[in-house]
User: Fold this.
Amino acid sequence: MRRNKRAACAALVLALALASCSAPTQTMAQHSVAIVAKSTQTEFWLSVFAGAEAAAAEYNIQLTVTGPETEEDYETQNEMVAQAVRSGAEAIVFSAIDYENNASAIDDAARAGVEIVTIDSSVASGAVSTYIGTDNYAAGQMAAQAALDRLEGDLVVGFINYDINSANGQERQRGAEDAFANSGRAQVAAGINTLADAWQTQNDTTTLLSRHPEINVLIAFNEPTSVGAARAVEALGLSDTVFLVGFDSNVATVDGLQDGSVDALIVQNPYAMGYLGIESAYKLLTGQGSALEPVVDTTTQIVDRENLFTLDSQKALFAFEQRQN
Assistant:
């Protein structure tokens, strides 16, 4: 009896071994996803791409990343969307330069069967399955509140914004306007829309401050405009009289927090935008789209000189570098 049991066990083991040798290897199907970003140059977008690459490795995604040379070139963005479709992308993770003028390219991609996820800045298309990014209206309110909480007396405000057709910049400005209006002690003296380019912003901010010397608060609404505004404040010697609130993390603006040309930064979570953007595309492509929320709000926080060296602030400011190490 014992010998028969041993023989049966040996036969079973042999059968399983033969079956495992003859069965085809099971591998996760690789899907193709394209990121079409606003830019490929700033630290914000490098952090987005780092998050996207981490998710692509985890979910076995074939990932391509493109973006125009400037954050105003929506026409090149539209062509990049069309090229992604022609190249076989099954999903596109998109950040719109122009809320209205990017919509037709996204609609065309969706009609071709491509799944659409937006990050950072949305687009006027009903084809978007989910938006992942900052609550931009709330972030604008946060920027205004940073000045209101840290300054006494009446505030005279200047806005430094980028492309007037970019949804996220306009939502941030609207949030800041409402917060200042509700405070009862602030007025907006002037606002400009400039290129998302630090040197152009520096020139335009210099002009704004020369025309409105009464301004004692500046709000700049993205990374390049924040760098340019900080350079202008420093070059004009106004660090002690103009309170500057910027957006995002950049070596220049983090240095500005220490030398006084920047007083607070509204720091987003671009790494999470990239990671969750690719993860959401994967879920859409694998039949899990019903589990996605239409809007996913990534974290945003205020960093100033008081909390600059706390662990939470350092993680927020240098998320890209920490993920790379």
Q: What stands out?
A: Confidence is low (pLDDT under 50) at residues 1-26. The two ends are 61 Å apart (CA to CA). DSSP finds twelve helices and twelve strands in the chain.
